[in-house]
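tool_call: predict_structure(chain=1)
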Amino acid sequence: MRLSLVPSLVVAAVLAVPAITSAQDVAPTAGSWGAEASAVGDVSLLRFRSSTSAWLVGFSGFYNRRDEDDSATPFEATTTVAAVRLGWRGYRAPESRTRPFTTLAALVGYDDTAFGATWQFGGQFEYGAAYFFTRHVSLGASFDLRAVFGVGEREQPFDDEIDVMHVTLSTGLRFLGAVYF
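tool_result:
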């Protein structure tokens, strides 16, 4: 009989936590830090200026090496992508657990592929929302729009390298998890 009481107490405690914490302010305050990660490999560090705004610095990277020796034409390719973003994030509804946010950031990146290397410069606009379970933990999602200008060199199969410039617009959906301290 005693063993069945323990799970009931645990369930009751878990159900009571949201009711207890809902009366408290769940927004990070001025001077708080946040660490955020997305399902696509981006990581960001946030420094809150107030409960409604934060400075943001982020990094994303990707590395892939493909080596096929067993085919009729051996193939080897390496892809390296790295980007840094620096910006500002504004949160709305600091008294609510669900907090919409907007991010504006500058982007600098470097791509090195089998076709050549490119430096990229641009900006990002992000709109999303985060659900704050407590003042220290949130999960959310965002839609982002990125515009970048790239400049670099591209290797040609039968000729010298050529200079390239390109403009890229991209969109994405990101799923985010964050901790605040």
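agent: The longest strand covers residues 159-180. Proceeding to next step.
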